[in-house]
Amino acid sequence: MKANIIDGKAIAKKIREDIRQKTIKLKEDRGIIPGLTVILVGDDPASQIYVRNKEKSCRSVGINSNIIHYDSNISQDTLLKKIYELNEDEDVHGILVQLPLPKHIKSQIVLNAIDPQKDVDGFHPVNVGKLVIGEKTLEPCTAKGIIYLIEETGIEIEGKHAVVIGRSNIVGKPVSLMLLHKNATVTMCHSKTEDLKDIARQADILVVAVGNPEFIDGSYIKEGAVVIDVGTSRVNNKLYGDIKFEEAVNKAGWITPVPGGVGPMTIAMLLENTLYCAQT
User: Is pTM beyond 0.90 here?
Assistant: First the structure.
């Protein structure tokens, strides 16, 4: 029996409509229009596409979106100066610096410069620290979207064995913490993990975020598991996830497609974080 498909596009659409209604109410009740400023450095084609999609999504829910585009040779000091200005701008509720940045700019210094209360990506050490200890905070968008997708299946996270393959600061680490806070038993795996297949086969919930196309085949998957594929790799102009979908779909109970799974949820959670920043 084939797995149920977790339709990220449809779920994200519902979330966007909810955000649109709350944005209208915020304007009516308090005269506040949420504002997101995105800083894009350089001409990376993928980054430009991501930023355009974010801008379009903001417009669709009534969030003001402003894109500041710099040449790749901008100095780190100039970039930091702009961030400090945005931190003080009351009309800007969320600040996002599109990664990757050019090599001469230290990403962590730039991200640390963002006011934690405007850090819609959830990457600032203050927000990361709050996530670790379980305080309410701005959570990284992709990890937050993954939790939402798992909960949409109706599966109870509490008590389940969740295996996360990948330990990045953007996905692997935060989603592991968020699953832990929901009382899952969490195993985090990475490139040095021994017996990876045996561990993955134990997962009631399997999250794969390694950026390696079709790295995980059906033999890694427990019958009936919830499988979340975070990977997006373009090979010969075709998009692949980290999981061999054709095999996994015959073993999993629930599975996300690529594209149309985690991707739309990441942007939806960005909008939700921006609204939250405007409300608080």
Answer: yes
